[in-house]
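During the reporting period, our protein records have gained a structure token line. A sample record is set out beneath this paragraph:
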Amino acid sequence: MKFAPLTALAAVAALALPAQAFDLQDMSDAERDAFRAEIRTYLLENPEVIMEAVAVLEQRQAEEQARGDSDMIKAHAGALFDDGHSWVGGNPDGDITLVEFMDYRCGYCKRAFPEVESLIEADGNIRLIVKEFPILGEQSVLASRFAIATQQVAGDDAYKQVHDALMTFRGDISQPALDRLAEGFGLDAGAITAQMDSDAVTEVITKNRELGQRLNITGTPSFVMEDQMLRGYVPLDAMQQIADDIRG
């Protein structure tokens, strides 16, 4: 953590004094040195003041970030909550919508997966939207293309089966492995494979990436819960608390 230099702290202190009582420009070199010495002595004797100031600054920055995120979410609400191509689960009539940007090769996404599932099941009133957001290399793209193609060829239920399987998959993702996965669910692997390189699949990934860029999403998992952006892994208890706070 970086702290402000003493000159900056002196300037802040000056704000508490009447204008006529304090003007650095009007000080002589000796007066300026004496003032800086007093500031230094005070801070050394009361170092907790620095931590208090830093805490206030961090709180203000967090609030500013939250307002900026809320404005971005409102500006892109249609693409977030009703894009016409993302899989929708949970309670379709839930009072809270949770959007997850995920990557099948992301360790934290895999860690979050069972907790998101538990949240949706335990709460019972959350609508979940999954955004395929492959950013971790060729295997991520291959897995997302497969999942999206499955949805387009075989529907939402088949997508959910494949999505869950890929979230718990261990090892390298290859086309033969994906074919075996499809066959294991009784799906038409040939039809899904043929769809994977289609313009329709590419369009979904492109739109999700463009949306992520507009929302300043650079990593996975990233969540949007109503008007709040949750960047990174969030434990189950914390996500439930956020949902409770939103409901008031």
Remarks:
- The longest helix spans residues 48-75.
- The two ends are 34 Å apart (CA to CA).
